[in-house]
Write a structure and sequence with these properties.
- This protein is of the alpha/beta class.
- 44% of the residues lie in helices and 25% in strands.
- It has ten helices and seven strands.
- A seven-stranded mixed β-sheet has the order 3-2-1-4-5-7-6, with helices on both faces.
- The mean pLDDT is 97.
- The protein binds S-adenosylmethionine.
- The site of S-adenosylmethionine has 21 residues, from helix 3 and strand 2.
Length: 246
């Protein structure tokens, strides 16, 4: 985890996404951009989407991540932005949050809930949402009903809850949410905003940690994952799910 943090900490994103995608999710959630909200952004990384939200919305955003180093970069980067919401940071684990019951109007989480499992995360976080509150979460999902075996084996080996969009929507409904909308992240979210900057950062990372076997494995996995994405992007992406607590 420490090595992963070193590799990712100078990048704007630690997973696929974009300001346009965050904006579309805000629109689908029918969030009133003039009102003030209490928002948690869980697994925020270096906070590209936190800053996007803070430019689009008003109120307070608590940005949560396991790594203080990511939160420091978020604080630094947000200084130069024209933000309208206040950002606070919190170093904590997303499965042990020090929040009150029904504290938040909105819970946001881009590409991070898989760390504690989708079903576990959406159920656990629900207790912190006010009734009628919004959950906006992006999650790796199959976007077709069948797929090549090599691909299926790879992602099923990586993530036990790999499922279709319909499966993710069912999980949200079973957890007590009404699904307001969903969409699939396009290529630029993966390549321009995530894999290309990540692959570019391998050179510096290997200069520092090239003697470390784990570091070499991380780099090889990134390259394999990016190649897989380019080969099989018709079959999977991140689904962005916007749901409301009943
Ligand atoms: C794939 S990254 C996504 C980051 C960011 N939301 C983005 O889209 O660029 C997942 C993030 O979850 C964080 N993370 C992993 N396990 C966590 C945990 N147990 N609690 C809080 N954050 C965690 C990682 O540090 C990382 O920043």
């Amino acid at each position: 985890m420490e090595l992963m943090m070193h590799l990712h900490r100078n990048n704007k994103r630690q997973g696929p996404g974009s300001e346009d995608a965050t904006n579309l999710a805000v629109t689908l959630a029918k969030i009133d951009r003039e009102k003030s909200y209490k928002i948690a952004d869980i697994g925020c990384g270096t906070g590209e989407q936190t800053i996007s939200l803070a430019k689009m919305l008003k109120g307070n955003i608590i940005a949560v991540d396991l790594f203080e180093e990511f939160l420091e970069k978020l604080k630094e980067d947000s200084k130069n932005e024209n933000i309208t919401a206040h950002i606070e940071t919190l170093a904590a684990s997303m499965d042990k949050l020090p929040f009150e019951k029904e504290e938040f109007d909105i819970i946001w989480s881009e590409g991070a809930v898989y760390n504690i499992g989708f079903k576990n995360g959406i159920n656990y976080w629900k207790e912190f949402l006010k009734p009628g509150g919004i959950l906006a979460v992006s999650e790796l999902s199959w976007i077709t009903n069948c797929r090549p075996k090599e691909l299926e084996d790879f992602w099923n080996g990586e993530y036990a809850e790999m499922d279709t969009i319909a499966g993710k929507i069912k999980a949200l409904e079973e957890a007590g949410y009404k699904v307001l909308g969903h969409f699939i992240l396009p290529d630029d979210c993966w390549l321009d905003n995530y894999y290309n900057p990540l692959l570019d950062s391998h050179k510096d990372f290997m200069e520092k940690f090239g003697d470390n076997e784990v570091a070499r494995v991380i780099v090889e996995r990134d390259i394999q994952e990016a190649d897989f994405y380019k080969k099989y992007k018709d079959y999977y992406s991140y689904g962005f799910y916007i749901a409301q607590k009943l």
